[in-house]
Design a protein that fits this description.
CATH superfamily of the largest domain: Aconitase, domain 4
Radius of gyration: 20 Å
Distance between the termini: 36 Å
Oligomer: single chain
CATH architecture of the largest domain: Alpha-Beta Barrel
CATH topology of the largest domain: Aconitase, domain 4
Number of strands: 7
Structural class: alpha/beta
CATH class of the largest domain: Alpha Beta
Largest sheet: 7 strands, mixed
Number of helices: 9
Strand order of the largest sheet: 4-3-2-1-5-6-7
Length: 207
């Protein structure tokens, strides 16, 4: 997993509440367990018209938000089913950070496991960011995880809270597997010891 330190990037606005995971990545794109290639399904039902052509009003299709790495959205983002394909699709598209007033719990947890920083800001701070994005084409902010700050070129700064353990994992680029592998030597030593203490438990492994 790629570590997260400080990110400066274009902000793309999704001005909708209660965006569920079926809208983030519709069910027809869940046939794979690969984490790449899912960007084509990101917001697929919203980004295209019924005839299959791109909807020019949807933010992903607008040139001013091309190359965005920070998603700005509204309350309860990521609600619905717990599909991990949702953060995979967002990450595959290029989003490393999501700014919102609130997130669905499972989606929030999945973001940290995939190198995405979900930042909770106050509703009035989110509204200010929506206004700045609307006023300035290519509007960028800097998200500083060590300092826990979102900084705007227009002068505003917003602080955010984050669990210290999750912060440390993101800074080091560690998901659950990475955390476990830090103790690989101790785990291997324990298993070697147990094969001598209770060999009958390991008979199938020793054949």
């Amino acid at each position: 997993m790629e570590a997260f330190q400080t990110l400066t990037g274009i902000v793309a606005p999704l001005n909708r509440v209660n965006v569920d995971t079926d809208q983030i990545i519709p069910k027809q794109y869940l046939k794979t367990i690969r984490r790449t290639g899912l960007k084509e399904g990101l917001f697929a039902d919203w980004r295209t018209r019924p005839d299959g052509t791109p909807d020019p009003d949807f933010f992903i299709n607008q040139p001013r938000y091309r190359g965005a790495t920070i998603l700005l959205t509204r309350e309860n983002f990521g609600c619905g089913s717990s599909r991990e394909h949702a953060p995979w699709a967002l990450l595959d598209y290029g989003f490393r950070c999501i700014l919102a007033p609130s997130f669905a719990d499972i989606f929030y947890n999945n973001c940290f496991q995939n190198g995405i920083l979900p930042v909770v800001l106050a509703p009035h701070e989110i509204q200010t960011l929506f206004e700045r994005v609307s006023e300035h084409a290519g509007f960028q902010v800097t998200v500083d995880l060590p300092q826990q700050l979102v900084s705007c070129p227009t002068g505003e700064q917003f602080s955010f809270d984050i669990d210290p353990f999750r912060k440390d994992c993101l800074l080091k680029g560690l998901d659950s597997i990475g955390l476990t592998l830090q103790d690989e030597a101790a785990i291997a030593a324990y298993e070697r010891c147990r094969t001598h203490e209770v060999p009958w438990l390991f008979q199938d492994l020793l054949v």
